[in-house]
Each structure stands twice: as C-alpha cells, then as structure tokens.
Specification:
Two copies of one chain form a homodimer. By secondary structure, the first copy, chain A, is α/β, with parallel strands linked by helices. Helix content of chain A is 47%, strand content 13%.
Chain lengths: 291, 291
C-alpha cells in the first residue's frame, strides 16, 4: 500500500503535490515548483531511483526539468525531441521536433547521430538511413543552416543519403530525418493537423449524400485501420534525447492507451540502454569543429 | 497567322528557341539562355509588350529572370512567392513559399503587406487577417526570426492576429500566413505530399477487401469533390510578388486546366493592378528600421 492507502500494485508512489500548467513559463515553473510530478520524476531518474521519466505535461517544462536535474550528456551540445513518424513503409524518426527553436549546423550533425541511435535501438533498424530535411533533394538546395549541416553530415560516417523533401515525410523519406526544432515542430504539427483536417473533410463530404453515407459504413473498417496506423497514440510519445537519463514526452491529450505505450517506449529505451549508446556514440564521432 | 504558319488565334507568337531544364542552375541558365521562353516572357513584360508572365518552368530560373529583367519594386527588399492554400473555410495565402531560403524580420513584415494586397485583390478578402507561422500561438513562442518579425507585424497597421500554428493551415489558420521561404516551402510540400499519401493509403485500405471496394465505389463522388477542392490545379499557380511586373508560377506538372487557371490568375492580377497596389502600399507603411 502506498501513502493514503492507495493500492499501487507494488509500485512505490511518490507524492508530487505541485502542478505546472500548460501555459506556464517552463524554466520559472520548474524552479518555483520542485514538487511538480515531472520535476520529482526527473530528480528520481537523476538519483537513480527510477530508470526513466514519462510525462504528458508541459513540454517546455519537461525540457527545463531535464536540463536542470538530468543534465546533458557530456558531449551533447543540445538535447533534441525525437518523434516517431508513422510512415507508409514503417516508422521513421523526425528530430529535432521542437527542443531548440534555433540551431547551428553542428547541432544538426549531433541530431543525426542521436536519431541513428534511436532508430537502431528503439525502432530496430540496422544501419538506418539519415536524411536532412530541406527544400530540394540536391545538396545545394536549402538555407544557410542546412547547407552547412549537409557538409557535416556527409562526412559524419552516418549512412547519410542527402536531403529529404517534406512531401515524402509521410510516405517514408528516410529512417532518420534531421532538422532544426522550429522546422521540425512546424512539420510535425502540419502532418498531424493535415491528417485530421483531411479525414474530417472526407467524412463531411461522405455524410452529405445518402449514397455517400452507405459507402461510409462500408469503408469504416478500412478507415479505422488507416486511422490506427496514423494514430500518434500508437507510439505514445517522443524521446527527449541527449540527457543523462531517459525521458519520454507524451501528447498533452494522451489517451490511456497512449500513456501505456509511452511507458512501453520508455521501457524499451531502458532495456536497449539508449542513453549509454548515445554517450558512447557522440564523443567518438564528434568532429573537432563542433567543440 | 504567326511565324511558321501556326494559327495563334490572333495572339502574337514570339519565338523562344532556348530551353532551361528543371535541374539547371537558375542564375547561370537565365544569363546563358536569353531566348528561353520564361526569359523572353519576362523581357516582354518589362518592355510593356505583355501585361504578365506565366510559367510552369524552373522556379529558380523564373525568380532569377524576374529579378534580372522585371526587377524589384523600389521599396521591396525581397520578392516572395505567394501560394493560395485550399483551406476548409476558403482560400488563404501562404508566403514566402520559397523565393528566399533565408529571411530577416523586415522581410517577413513586407511579406505581410504583400500577402494582404494579394488577399484583397486576388482572393477578394476585405481587411484580411494576417498571422505569422510559428511553433505556438503565444507571442513568445518561436525562433529568433519569428520573435522579431512578430514585434514588427504587431506595429504594422495590418490586421495582425498573432502566430498561427501549422496544424491549422489546411483548416484555415488566417487569410494571410507569413513565414520565411524555407519554412514555407517545407510547409507547402508537406501539405501536398501528406494529402496525396493519405488519400493513396486510404484507397489501398479500401481496395483490400470486397466490402471496402463496394464502399469505395459509393463514396467516389464525395472523394472526387474533396479532391477537386484540394487540387492545386484549382488555383493554377503562385504569384511571384514584389517585382515591377506580374509573374505567375505554375506547377511543373501542370495539367491544361492548371495552365488555363494560372493564366486566369495572372489576368485577375492585371485587372486588379496588384503590382501598382503593392508599389503604393509598401513605401507608405514601411518602418524606418527596415531601410
């Protein structure tokens, strides 16, 4: 039995009476509320009382708590949010999906290495193909950031296959798709929003006529299969990579299934020692220019 | 009758024997091939022998030819590509969709003004609402570029409604959505690619069972209505705004319908004097800081 007589099924229940709202300023909230659950959980991982933290709370606060209590791995310049994308030919991982709104080329290089470790250990892909999200497949297409990152990635030892275009993201552009956090966040939300808006619009068109309604009943299982495959709940969450402990961020509106899958995602990362693999990978391949 | 005895229906046919391929370097190709059709057409507009140029050719070459022969309007810092988005509640315009891979805050301010003129004159929207594409609706969410652009747009006199999130782009985030050309190009291609991939995936799921196939036949008219609404051919093209003449860029794989609509889009811009409206708007509202 845990505190207050709750049956915790043998798990230790740690009290965390503070609450960080979704609209609070992350860094301030994390300092002002040391007893919020995501802060308590990050401390528990830092103190090795827990193996991983899973939260569906304020993403910025999770990042701030991770940086403050878990801290960066020695050679990591910036942590990154790695999100599994339900691509048509199997999952790929998009990073950074929003940890850093501004990034430098050497950060993108590290994101490539971190994404490769994620793809290998969490998605089970041997020698994952890495691409850089840009505005044309040719090496000379891009902005200043991607042009410089392209050169670094080409010499990285990763299985780098050049630029990926966003039009191929859902079809399966690469095992690992690298970008800055602003672009990644725009891309991720656009993907989710477009899928939702399009399926809603199709449903409305179908419901507009009796013929359509009958057809809609008949395609319901097919639509449900598609929705399940594209559902973010299938993966349950994103990894916050680059810290000295494992952190999984679930959607703010996660279902019970999504939370269960997020915990499974965290467990897989612990079993495959993603943090140890990252620590081992980054120093050895980090170019001196990135110091 | 035009040259070579072709019946041109009374239109003057101007010979343009050079060809610029899709993979040629834009600026070099435009200088090396003065008799390519898009270069000839830009010169015709510059010489006032034509009112507008429409091309489905190399976008970069079109931009280079526009800058070289049409030249920028006096107070325009950078031209921008303005693309109509088939949003659920009516068209909105996204700019810059790829003319400038890197942009400064004052460019985004001008894109806001240019997009407002486009929405007023081409889309027929009075007092269009302008939003800045970012990674959160709050003013303090964004990267360095959008944070600074937000401040400029807030003081611009435009009907600025703050940040838009990419998840709302297809649902109708605003009449005018402003961003740098890298982000806009990623967003536009992601939108197009996700729509195509999703509809293909749905078709494949439907075709997987006899029940689904029957349902698919019944929803065909509904799906066709949706596809027509979302079809880029419906608008036919994008405006290259900020030049001393009107230029419309059509998709490289445009159908005959798309080319006809692109010409219609150009005609509408001429009738509504979009270039004159831009020239009149930009100096008067341009803040001194942007000089």
């Amino acid at each position: 039995m845990g505190p207050r007589g709750l049956d915790t099924g043998g798990l230790e229940l740690v009290e965390a009476p503070d609450t960080i709202a979704m609209d609070e300023k992350p860094a301030e909230a994390v300092r002002a509320k040391p007893d919020a659950s995501l802060v308590v959980a990050c401390r528990a991982v830092a103190d090795r009382r827990a193996d991983a933290v899973v939260s569906a709370g304020n993403t910025g606060a999770m990042l701030a708590a991770g940086l403050l209590h878990l801290r960066r791995l020695p050679n990591v310049l910036r942590p990154a949010i790695a999100v599994p994308i339900p691509a048509a030919n199997g999952p790929s991982v998009l990073l950074d999906s929003g940890a850093n709104a501004d990034a430098r080329p050497e950060h993108l290089l590290q994101f490539g290495h971190m994404g490769a470790v994620f793809a290998e250990e969490v998605l089970g892909i041997a020698r994952p193909e890495v691409r850089l999200l840009s505005i044309g497949e040719e090496a000379e297409k891009g902005n200043q950031l991607t042009l410089e990152a392209h050169a670094l990635l080409a010499e990285s030892g990763l299985r780098f296959a050049g630029n990926a275009e966003s039009r191929d993201l859902l079809a399966g552009a690469a095992d690992v798709v690298v970008c800055d956090g602003f672009t990644g966040n725009v891309a991720l939300k656009l993907l989710e929003g477009t899928i939702r808006t399009l399926l809603d619009a199709l449903r409305a068109e179908i419901a507009a006529t009796p013929r359509g309604k009958l057809g809609g009943l008949l395609i319901r299982p097919a639509a449900a299969r598609l929705r399940t495959r594209l559902d973010p709940d299938t993966y349950g969450g994103a990894y916050l990579l680059g810290l000295r402990g494992l952190a999984v961020i679930a959607h703010g509106n996660s279902s019970r299934v999504a939370i269960a899958n997020a915990i499974r995602l965290a467990a897989r990362g612990v079993e495959h020692d993603v943090v140890g693999r990252l620590a081992a990978r980054l120093p050895e391949r980090r170019p001196s220019a990135a110091v």
